[in-house]
Amino acid sequence: MLAAFAGALFVSPAAAEEKVRLGAALSLTGKLATHGKNVKDGYDFMVKHINARGGIPIGGKKYKVEIKYYDDESNAKTAVKLVEKLIVEDGIKLLLGPYSSGVTFPASSVAEKYKVPMVEAHGAATTIFERGYKYLFATLNTVDQYFGNILQMAAKLPDPPKTIALIAENSLFPKLGADGAAKLAEKLGIKVVYHQYYPSGTKDLSSMLAQIRDKNPDILLAGGYINDMILLTKQAKEMGVKPKLFGFLLGPTVPGFVDSLGADADNLVEPVQWAKSMDWKDEVLGWTAPQYAEMFEKEMGYEPDYHPPQSSAAVMVYYHALKKAGTTDPQKVRDEIAKTNIMTFYGPINFNEQGKNIGKGMAVVQLQNGKHRVVFPSSVAEGKLVYPRPYN
Amino acid sequence: MQKASAPTHRSPGTGASRGIGRRARLLGLLAIAVTALGLLAAPEILNLYWLRILTNIFMFAVIAQGINIIAGYTGYPAFGNVVFFGLGAYGTAVVMVKFGGSFPLGILAGIGIAVLFTIIIGPPLLRLRGHYFAIATLALNEATKTVVNNLEITDGGMGLSLPLPPGSAFESAGFFYYLYFALLAVSILATYVLTVSPLGYACRAIRSDEEAASCSGINTTLVKTIAWTISAILTSIAGGIYAYWLSYVEPSSLFDMTVAVKAFVIFLLGGAATLFGPLVGAVFIELITTFTWSNLLSFHVGTLGAVIMAVVLFIPNGFIPMIKDRFTLLMELLNTRKRR
Amino acid sequence: MLLAQVITNGILLGGLYACMAIGFSVIWGVMNLINLAHGSMIIIGAYITWLIATNTGIDPFLTIPAAGACLFVIGYAVQKYMINRLVEASVFMTLILTFGLDMVFINTNIVLFTADLRSVTVPYGGLGLQIGEVRIPYIRILVFAIGLLLTFGLYAFMTYTRIGNAIQATSFDKNAAALVGVDTKKIYAITFGIGACMAGMAGSLVAVLFSFTPVVGDSFTMKSFVIVVLGGLGSIPGAIAGGILLGVVESLAVVVLPSGYKDAVGFAMLILVLVLRPQGLFGKKFFAEIKG
What we know:
The structure holds three protein chains of three kinds.
Chain A: H1 2-10, E1 18-26, H2 33-52, E2 56-58, E3 61-71, H3 76-88, E4 95-96, H4 101-114, E5 118-120, E6 136-138, H5 144-155, E7 163-169, H6 172-187, E8 191-198, H7 206-215, E9 219-223, H8 226-239, E10 245-248, H9 257-261, E11 269-272, H10 289-300, H11 307-325, H12 330-338, E12 341-344, E13 347-350, E14 363-368, E15 371-376
Parallel strand pairs in A: 1-3, 4-5, 5-6, 7-8, 7-9, 9-10
Antiparallel strand pairs in A: 2-3, 11-14, 12-13, 14-15
Chain B: H1 18-45, H2 48-73, H3 82-98, H4 103-125, H5 130-150, E1 160-161, H6 169-196, H7 198-208, H8 210-215, H9 220-246, E2 248-249, H10 251-254, H11 257-270, H12 277-295, H13 300-314, H14 319-339
Chain C: H1 2-31, H2 38-56, H3 64-81, H4 91-113, E1 128-131, E2 134-137, H5 138-160, H6 162-172, H7 174-179, H8 184-209, H9 217-231, H10 236-256, H11 262-276, H12 285-290
Antiparallel strand pairs in C: 1-2
C-alpha cells in the first residue's frame, strides 16, 4: 500500500500515460443483462482501483488499464462478431470473457483462432475446456462442482434425502449442471424421480412443477438464469411444491432475486464460487474478501454476490501476468497466464493445462432471513443449514 | 400476392426499346465484371474486419437470393426460409463433430436434409397461399428449432463446437470469403438460368395467376416444389459454411426469426425478382447494421428497425427497380437527344 | 390427479391467451395486417402496469384501464401516421413494417426500463383454492376471469356499438362500407388502436402472472399467431376457443412429451390446421380465401 502510494508520488505528471487495453463482449442487454451488469461492475471496479494506484507495472513503466466493451445482447452469434471486431478492428489482443457458458463457448473459439488470450470468469461448462484450446483460461470452477457441492452436503446430513427432482433450462450451463447432478445423485444413492428440461424463454413452468409436486421429492434442484429462477420459485409456491432441500444452480445470491421474492426466497440454497465471509487475502492489494465486499457495496451501491469478484479476479490475472511478462505481447502474456499461481480476494488461482482454475473450490450458501450464510463445507461454514425447509 | 413487383419486372429479351436495352445491358455487364474482379482481389487489400463484413454480405445475399427464387419469382413468401440455413448448418456440424466427417461431406449432408424437407413438407405446405404460407413457414422454422433443441444427436440446447479450420486466422478468413463469393456467384447464375428456362416461365406464370397456369397444363405442385428445393439447397449450403466458419452451432442462433426477417427485408429492399437485388439489399442492410453497431451502440436495434420501416414506407419496390426506372429514364433522355 | 391439475392450469392460462390473441386477431381480420409488434405492445402494457403498481402500490389489476388507454393512443397514432401510408400494402410490406416497429419498441423499452427482469407481486400471490388434488392460485383465477371479461367486452363492443359495426362492415367489404359513409381510414386507425389496447391490457395480466423483459414479446406474438389460426381469423369466440385449446394442449404436452417439445406442439397444431382446415375452428371460410 505504502509502496503504491510512494510510486504515485514519484510518477511525474508530465509523463505520457501508458495504457494497456483489455476488451470484452458482454451481455449488456437481453436475457442475461442483469448478470452482464454485475460482471461489468466487477471489471470496472477492479480497473478503477488498479488505476488509482497508478496502473500495472510492466517492464519498468506503469500502465493504466482500459477496457473496451461491446454489447453482445446475450447472443452468442453477436458475441462472436464482436470479439473478432475487438481483435481485428480495435487491435485489442488481451480479452476478458463474456457472460454465460453458451456465449463463452463460441467466443473463445475466435480468440483461439487469432491466438489471443482470453481470461474468462463466467463460462463454467466443462465442455468449454475439452477442446484442447491453449489461449483460454477461467477463474471460476466448472459446472460439475456446482450441484456436486449441494449433493455432497445433502449426503452428509443426519437424515439424508432419498429422492431428487431436477429441472433445468435446455442450454449449455444448466443442462450440464443437471446432467452432472443426476449422475452424482445415483452414485450417492439418491433416486432421481424427475429430470426434465424446459426450452429457453419458457414463460410457464407450472405444469412441470405440478408433476414435480406429484413425485414429492426430498430435493429439488433447478438450473437456469435469474429470470427463469424467479419465475420458478414463484410458480413452485403457487403449485405447492415443498421439497425439503430447494437448491439452484444460480439465483438466490444474485442481486434482485431476494428483492423480487421477499420471504419466498428464504432457506433456498445455492453453490457459490465465493462468499464475503471467506478468509482470502489478495497478495497484491492486501484486500480480504470482506473488505472487497464492503468497498464494492459502497461504490456500486449493492452487495456483491460472487460474480463481481470473479470478474475482478480475471483482471487481477492479467495484472500478474503482465507484470511478470514485462510486455503486452499477447503470446508472452499468454505464457505467463498459463503459469498463474496467485492468491486473490477471490481465492487462489492456478490454471491447469486445460485452463481450468484448480486452486479453488466452491461452497454452498443458504438464504437465511434475507442474508447469505455459508453452510458448507464445514471448514468455511458461517452457519448451519436449515433442513428441512420450513413451509407455513 | 406480389402486386408491388408485377409492373416493374422486366423479363430478359423483351421490350420495344431494344437498342437501349442492349447498351444498358453491356454497361451493366461491364460494371459487374469490374466489381467481381475487385471483389476477388479484396483479401489482398482489405483488413480482416472488412473482409468479414463482405463475407457476411455475400452470405445474406445468398439467403436472400434463396428467398427471391421462391417468393420473388414464384410468389410464395417463404418467411421462414431460414429453416434451411439452420438445417444446413446442423447437417454439417453433426457430420463433422459426431461422425468425424469432412467439411464437404457435411455440406452434402446439409443439402440432403434440406432436399428431404422440401420433398416431404413442400407439397402440403405449398397448398397454402399468401399470409398463410408465410406463417406456416415461420411455424415450420420454430418447430424445427424445437426438435433440433431436443435431439440427442445435436446435443440439443448445448450446441456443438466444430473443429477449427486449419491455417492462420488470415488464411481461414480468405477461405470463407472465397467460398461465399463462389456460392453467391452460383446462386446468381442459378437464378439467371431459372429465369430463362421453361421452369422459370412456369414459376412466373404461377406467380401471376396460379389457376390459369394450372389450366394451361403446368404441374404447379411440381414446379413450386422444385423452385423451393433449389432455394433450400442454396440456403442450406450457406448454412453449412456458416457452421464451419463460426465453429459453433446452437439452435436459437441458427433458426433465428431475426435473421429470417432481415433476409426478407434484404430481398425486398433490393427488389423482388431481380438478379442482383439481393446483393444490393445485403450491402445496404449490412453496412447500416455495422455502422449503427459501432456508433449507436445503445440504440442500434431501434435504428435498424427505423431504417427497415423507412425502406418499406418509401422504397417499397426495392432499389433495383428504382435504379432501373431512373436509369431507363436517363437512357431514354439520351437516346431521344441523339435521335434529334 | 395430475391430469386434472394440468388441464385446469391449461384452461386458466387459456383465458390470458385469448385476451392476448384477440387484439392480434381483430387487426388481422379487419385490416389484413399481421402486426409483428403485437408482442412488444403487450410488453409495453406490462411496463405501464409495473410502473404504476410499484410506484403507488395500487393493485395491478386496477391499472388495466391505464395500460389499455395508453396503448390505444400509441396504436392509433402508429396506424394513422405510419401504417396508413402503405396504400396498396402487400402482406410482406406490413409484416416487415411491423417488425421494424417491433425493433424500435424493444430498443425503447430497453433504454427506458433497462433489460432487467420485472414482475409485479401481489400479497395474495401464493394463495389459492384447493379443490381435491387440484390447486388453483387466486391470481390465475383472476387473470382467467379478467381475460375472458375483456374478450367478451370486445365482442359486445363489436356487435352492439355503431363503431363496432362499422369496423365489421369495413372488414367484410371496404368499398361497400365506404359507400355507405364509413370513414375507412378512421376506422382502420380505431381498429389498430383497439387491437393495441387489448394487447396492453393483456400485458397488465402478463405482468402479474409472469416476469418479463423488453425482449420477450416475440414469443407472445408467435402464440397469438397459433391461437388465431386455431380459432379462426376474425372470430372472437374463435380466439377464446383457440386460447383455451392452446393452453390445455401445451400443459398436457409437458406431461406426455419431454418438456422441451412444449412449444413445438403449438406449432405443429398450427401447421396441421393450416393444411387441413385453414379457416380454423370458427373462422368463416370465405375469410380464408379473400385474405389469402
